[in-house]
Design a protein that fits this description.
Layout lengths: L3 E7 L3 E7 L5 E8 L11 E2 L1 H19 L6 E8 L5 E4 L9 E2 L7 H9 L2 H9 L8 H11 L3 H7 L2 E4 L1 H9 L9 E3 H4 L5 E2 L4 E2 L1 H7 L8 E3 L21 E6 H8 L8 E5 L3 E8 L10 E6 L7 E8 L3 H11 L7 H7 L8 E3 L17 E3 L7 H27 L6 E4 L6 H11 L3 E4 L4 H13 L6 H7 L2 E5 L5 H18 L6
Parallel strand pairs: 1-5, 5-13, 9-12, 14-20, 20-21
Antiparallel strand pairs: 1-2, 2-3, 4-7, 6-8, 10-11, 14-15, 15-17, 16-17, 18-19, 21-22
Helix pairs in contact: 1-6, 9-14, 10-12, 11-12, 12-13
Amino acid sequence: MADFIGAVDQGTTSTRFMIFDHDGREVARHQLEHEQILPRAGWVEHNPIEIWERTETVIGTALTTAGLGTADLVGIGITNQRETAIVWDRHTGRPYANAIVWQDTRTDKIAAALQADGRGEVIRRKAGLPPATYFSAGKVQWMLENVEGLRAAAERGDALFGTPDTWVIWNLTGGPDGGVHATDVTNASRTMLMNLETLDWDEELLGFFGIPRAMLPTISASSHPAAYGQTPAIKGRSAVRITGVLGDQQAATVGQVCFEPGEAKNTYGTGNFLILNTGTEIVRSTNGLLTTVAYQLGDQAPVYALEGSIAVTGSAVQWLRDQLGIIGDAREVETLAASVPDNGGVAFVPAFSGLFAPYWRSDARGAIVGLSRFNTKAHIARATLEAICYQSKDVVDAMAADSGVPLTMLKVDGGVTANALCMQLQADILGVPVSKPVVPETTALGAAYAAGLAVGFWESTDELRANWAQDHAWEPTWSDEDRERGYAVWRKAVERTLDWVTL
């Protein structure tokens, strides 16, 4: 048997390929950023061709760096930014338009109409999601209504839709020459089109958005030895099977080995995403959380989860760098924030794409409040890190209310966990320990785990648990009074962001 497993991690800001050994240790990686296209306020796009080219490059470079070939890989897993919508021509592989990214808010009127006429309740019941700009279906509807010729192509069966996992799979497996048009249950559960009980596309939901079923990929388990084809499109290399597919936050859940009901993780990336495993039971949230599929391994029953999705956390640091220019590198934010003892009275709510969980307010927009002449860019930097942590507290509190189980420790992963000050603030704001694993990039690791389980590289989830180890833990240092006072200011700041946009 081959000794390694690979994982494509197609994220919001970059694409990377990582190679792992049987102990879950990283052997090699290569990563490339792609352009963030911002045509107008509220619009966020990606170039699908650029994403595919980056995917080819990172796979080849990582293998070369490690001195390996695809023959050394037992399989490939794929994980991806969820909800981002891509529509392309099945005959040419040409996208009809740029991808509409999950952060994009151009579909706010579509979401508002769904909520106003009662269809939103049907979507909540069947798909576990509120009608919001976040999810894929409204983006596809917008393209069908606004991209010239697309509606006719879709009706003819010439137009294909997919989230980025589907786009990567289709291209890796041959594209116009026999590419596999498929997705897994976790990505499908983020579209507003899949019925959580049947794990299939729902005709009533398709009708709400006017989306022809022929556009949609086949839905399969997250870990499957044959559903996703193999990779003749990796030029000059032997074929390798794609055997695992998971949306990025579900992949991190698997990477953090949250396999038992009640186990939770928080991933800090472009946004923050906290997932609580609820087992094989579908738990309906009454506190602004999403009901979603956590994973499905082969023929086993699907495992469900409650999720709190936050749109802007790590990307707020990117905004300080790229739009404001107050830091030159994302890593500088920790040093700058640590140069002051507190936020100096400043609160920053980065509601650039509205507010996601638990508020679901697409009318909100970002605000920096509490400014005085005393404040400096260091206070804004510290308020940015606190915003990451306070948004997570909003979700943790909602999750405790839904599940009835208070949080006692938070498992964390993702790029922002390299910021020790941010993780200390998270422990202080939550009042519980925060634990980071030895492999912090658990998104790619989870995709590798799903792929490996499908082909017997790992025999069971017990083997995966044995791989998990803690790298560092942060204990809370704030008093209860400090915690309550800081959170009260945060909630007041959130109120200032609401009703900014008229829908």
